[in-house]
Each structure stands twice: as structure tokens, then as C-alpha cells.
Amino acid sequence: MKLERSAGILLHITSLPSKYGIGDFGSDAFRFVDFLAETKQKLWQILPLTTINCPSPYSSESSCGGNPWLISPEKLTDMNVLSSEDLELLTNGTKFHGDYVSFKDVNEFKEKLLKKSFENFQNSKNHKEILDKFYADQSFWIDDFVLFMIIKSQHKGLPWNEWPSALRHHDPAALDELRRTNRNEYEYHLFVQYIFDQQWKQLKKYANEKNIQIIGDMAMYVDYNSVDVWANSKLFKLDSNTMRPTVVSGFPADENYDIQIWNQPVYQWNDANIRQDLFQWWIRRIEKSLSICSNIQAEHIRCALGKHTVRTVKNQIFKRKNSSGYELFSAVKSSLGEDISLVVEDIGSVTSEVFQLRDAMKFYGIRILQMGFYCYPDNIYSPHNYLPNSIAYTGTHDNATSLEWWTSVARREEKDLFKKYVHRPCSSEVDFEKHIPWYFIQMILQSASNGAIVLMQDLLSVNVRMNYPGKDSSMEENGPQNWSWRFKWSQLTSNIREELKELTEMYGRNLLYGKAIPPKDMIMQGDSSFFLK
């Protein structure tokens, strides 16, 4: 996706309104697309859509399998796999909170819903043909995914390295037996992924028809207890006996951050015997992600673009290992096309190598406005230093909202610099504070970054984070917690809509050709570079 001058909103699917306890691919998602189109937004950024068994969308059991919690009950009736009577019966007596996601309740409800839908689906004449075609289209990942889900269920959620030896080592004969003896459960998991695929494609098509591109999210590392590591164990640094990681991902302490230990297994970047298979796995993963979204943001890209750090399990010493960023992304472009582009997380403790590779691969960087007011004018995160090949954000899912930044995070000197930067008269501190979110929004929209994305909480001027990094979340928690925030339509007032549309158009983020075209009498003689081809 080539990024023209445009604007958009960062909002995960789960944060949409819905009467079924969690945002999904139903009517409210289509209504949100209508809102984006109405206010001239062209980008919708979301978090990972992959299957999870905990609140965090970044703790996935598969880099390809879709999250069944996002399947819309209403759309199941439209697809004729669930009757309105079935839906009424399943929701009878079930009450969900409108302000947050109660993950345990949602999980139990969606499981009952999908099992009833599968039961109805099996009674249709062509159900096997439908699943066979879907299987063929998704063959590179779907079989391992379904087997993983079956085995995990049979062993009460135990990590895969604690399964019986034959299953742990992906033995073909043992897996054939599993397929033969668990045919119904196998087809159920196929069905769930088929439904997810169909509902998502319908929503994406609707958005694209309204000239809205969806930006997805892809973590650089995958969870240890995932189908990706189980089915491709040779691609990761694992102990040959215990099958546990010998090293895990992380980042060392520096002047700004404490030691970070992410505890995800590290790839075999430097093993010449493995590299070809590893690159092919990455190519298929990125290709799958780009079939779901128009573009993807790669989290922690510094771990592949420059150097990543690992921890030895035995003595817990941090060390640096060279990685293979140039070779990897050159292989990706060679296979998927030179025009392929990613949004990369080039922030934090990065080196010049990260920026050099970002530019060499023509990837887009990101700029977080909150980082722009803590040092001198040459700060690359200050709005006047933004480059066109970047996306500017008021904040992300991991950041404070703009209101929280102002009231609880920003130091006195940052506040002083911010006030000088916006250069707006105000009658009082309270009066200035209530305008903070819109100062943020205006600054990123008027910046030189081709993309400008507003955090939904900032648009609504609310002070509720999506995630506090390092703070635990739980399936058992029935109340506000990390990843549970949802908005209500009543918060999205006509004034907010009109202001967003006006600023988007004012700063040229809804131009007909995606860029400014000067009048002919302002073009130097002989200079045809501005004319459209």
C-alpha cells in the first residue's frame, strides 16, 4: 500500500460498541466505517486479529488463526448458520457490560454460539465442499493450527513441550491418528476459521469500497506456546531435550529504560542450514497478514533491522546477537514484490542501522507526538521534524492518552515547551488542559507525515488507556482492565465529527490525488515534475 497524505483512527475491533459484550465484525463495525468516510478519514488502524486465550491481542496461539471472539452473532444469522430463535435463546439471561469487555463471559458465550452454529452448518448439503475449499486456500497453516487446538484442549491447556513425545515432536503418524479419531472437532475448528474469514472479508471489502485502508499489527516475535513454535521448532533456539527456549527475546537497560525481558523464543537467524526455511516462513506470514489488511505495522522491528538482545536461560546474561534484517526483507520483497511496504516501529532505543534499513526498504516509520517535547529542536519526534515517509500518532495503545500525558506523565519542562509550541493564549491552566487532545490532533494533521492517526480516546477526550505495559490482565477479571476499554456511540458527538472533518480537509488529508498540486502559473518554466502523469 502506497501511503498518500491521509488521516485515520486507531481503534481495535474489541473496543467497538456491541450488545454482545465485545466489539465484533457486526453492524457497529460497518457503522464505524461510515463514520470514517463521513469525516474523510482514509485509515483505520487495528491491533492483531489472531486467536488468543487471554485479554492481550499480542499473546497469540497462532500468527494466522483468527480470533473467534470477533465473530458477529448477527452476521451468523445473515449467513444462515444461526436462526434468530437460536440467538435469542443463547442470549437469554446474558448481560454484558457496555463500558468494558468481560473476557471470560464473552469466551463462554461465543463458544456456545459457535458450537450451535456448527451444528446447524453440518446439516447443510454442501458443508463439506465449503470446508474443503477453505482448507485448500489456507493449506500452508490451517492443518497445524487445527491440530494444535485439538491437542491443547485434550491436554487441558498444557504447554506443547509437556505433551506426549510423539505429539510434542510433531510425529506424522501420531498426527494422522489424531485427524482420524477427532474428525468432528477438526471440522469445528475449520468452520470457526472459515466464518472468521468470511465475516472479516466482508467488513474489509466495505471499508475498501469507501476508500478506507486498514492497517494491521504484527508482533516481531511469536509466543512460545503457539502453533508457530510447535510446528516449526527448528526455526527457533530451543533445547533439543526439553524443547524449551535456550534464549529469549528482550532488550537491555539503557539511560531511558530498565531491562526488558519478553520471554518469547528467538529465531535461528544465523544458522545457514535453517535460514532458507526461516525466510520462507516469514514470507508466508507477511503474505497472510497482507491478505488480511492493506498494510501492517511491525512491532519491535529493531529486533530484526539492527540488533536484538537475548537472555541465556542458564545464567541470565544479556548479550547482543547479530540479526538478518537486510537479507530477510530483501527476500520478502523479492518474493512478494518490490512495492510491498510495512510500517515499522522505529522508536525507542534504536540505532542508525534501523533508520538506514527502513529507508533502504522504503518502509514507513512512526512518530509519537508525546515524545516530541522533552529535548531540543532537533528532536526527530517534534512535529516540525516529521518526514513524509512516516505516520504521526497522537498516541498508541501502549501510551498514555493525551490527557493522561498532560496531567500525569509530562514533566514541567515538557509542559512549558508544549505551551510555547502551540502558542495559544489561555485564561487558565484548566482552560488549556481541556483543549490538549485537540492540540495533539491538530499538530499531527498539519505535520509533513503522509499518515496521521488519532487514538480514539484522544478524539473523544477521555482518559482511559487501552494498555498499561507491565500490568497484568486476566480472563477471570470482571471489570475494567488492560485491553478491555470500549467506547459508546453517544460519546462521538456531532461537534467531534464536524471538527475532525474540518481539520482533515484543512490540512490536505483528503486531497483528490493524495498530494498538493500547485497552480500552473506557480510552476517554474520547464519543470513538469508536479504534473500528474
Structure notes:
- This protein is an alpha/beta fold and 533 residues long.
- Among the domains are: 1-45 and 367-532, TIM Barrel (Alpha-Beta Barrel), CATH 3.20.20.80; 219-344, no CATH class.
- 40% of the residues lie in helices and 10% in strands.
- It has helices at 27-38, 73-78, 84-91, 103-121, 127-137, 142-154, 165-168, 172-181, 183-209, 227-231, 272-292, 302-305, 325-336, 352-360, 402-409, 412-422, 429-433, 436-446, 456-459, 494-506; strands spanning 6-10, 43-45, 213-218, 247-251, 260-265, 295-298, 307-312, 318-322, 343-344, 365-368, 390-393, 451-455.
- The strands form 2 sheets. An 8-stranded parallel β-sheet has the order 9-6-3-2-1-12-11-10.
- α1 links the parallel β1 (6-10) and β2 (43-45).
- It starts with 5 loop residues before the first strand and ends in a 27-residue tail after the last helix.
- The mean pLDDT is 89.
The second-level CATH architecture of one domain is: Alpha-Beta Barrel
Q: How many distinct beta strands?
A: 12
Alpha-carbon distance between the two ends: 19 Å
Overall geometry comes to: globular
**What is the CA-atom radius of gyration, in angstroms?**
24 Å
The share of residues in helices is 25-40%
CATH fold-level topology of one domain: TIM Barrel
Secondary structure category: alpha/beta
Estimate the strand proportion: 5-15%
Largest sheet: number of strands, sense, barrel closure: 8 strands, parallel
Question: CATH superfamily name of one domain?
Answer: Glycosidases
CATH class of one domain: Alpha Beta
Tally of DSSP helical segments? 20
- Average pLDDT figure: 89
Catalytic activity: Transfers a segment of a (1->4)-alpha-D-glucan to a new position in an acceptor, which may be glucose or a (1->4)-alpha-D-glucan
Family: Belongs to the disproportionating enzyme family.
GO biological process, one term: carbohydrate metabolic process
Protein name: 4-alpha-glucanotransferase
